Fold this protein.
Amino acid sequence: MGEQVTGIGIVGTGVISGTYLDHLAKLPGVDVVAVADLDVSRAQAIADKNPGIRALSPQELYAADDVDIVLNLTIPAAHAPVHQAALEAGKHVYGEKPLAVDRAAAEPLLKYAAANNLRVGCAPDTVLGTGTQTARAVIDRGDIGVPHAATASFVTPGHELWHPAPEFYYQPGGGPVLDMGPYYITSLVTLLGPVRRVTAWSGRSKEERKIHTGPRAGEIFPVQVPTHVTGVLEHESGALTTVFMSFDIWATRLPRIEVHGTEGSVSVPDPNGFDGTVEIATATNRDWTEVPVSGGYAGAGRGVGVADMARALRTGEPHRADGALAYHVLDVLESLLEAAAQDQPVDVASTVGRPAAVPLGASPESA
């Protein structure tokens, strides 16, 4: 490896690891050198197919001299302990969302990293693509005036329709808020800034669900978390966002995200994707009009946040998908669930600055 390449070690070789491996192989400045999994055969299968990647135990991976960043792709319940083990081995960490299953597990990670001059990064990095970043450019240019309201909606009839082992989506750490909420809240914070207070209501349509696919099709499992949550976010700017997240809806025509300002509105594409069409309607032209790409990493895929973090490590600059942002997003999501359980508004204790915009034409190696 050259001096400008950062070594990546992946812990957790489930379905999402394939997507990361595919995209990281295309990104500058990063090189996956090792993989680890509790199921040794899964890690070995990846190593066998990818020359230059070796299969290790998690402990061996943490200790490897050529691993600079541990990419944590384990299930949510394992995020915090894997992060902690990697940090204690002196590694920077980047993980899938959420940062941890709750704030109590997440906060010590950030404190330990800060005390030991280590970095924490966290998905989603979808907001670094051209979709959300073009919408941010529209807002930052003042094209819709002063933003004062937004809507965000994610709905599905349930992951058990397609996932062969969906139970974790319905256990603590899962549910629509913690499962898909990170994409939406991270995008909203990128667009409108941090959140200071929330209120919400929640419910569930079923106490049990049935697996529909795979070798366990027909098995019944319990639902342990709310599966339908609606609420309001009060941003520090004063803007109000209405959120709607559900595993109980068969179909909808609701937009993913819209932001409304004093002079117009912008339609933001799916925050679970990196690109997509951004449209604007204004006081002088109320017809929705497509906006040319105005920012973001073009052609981005999962792992661009890792490459952005690797570049920042080399340059000493802040990385965009960082632990403070992930912690604030987790704080907002947990506060939403608390507000629903308590039937009253909840103040969000944390705050964070908007991450730096990704300029048009940027590369993870240079911006």
Summary: The CA atoms of residues 151 and 164 lie 32 Å apart.
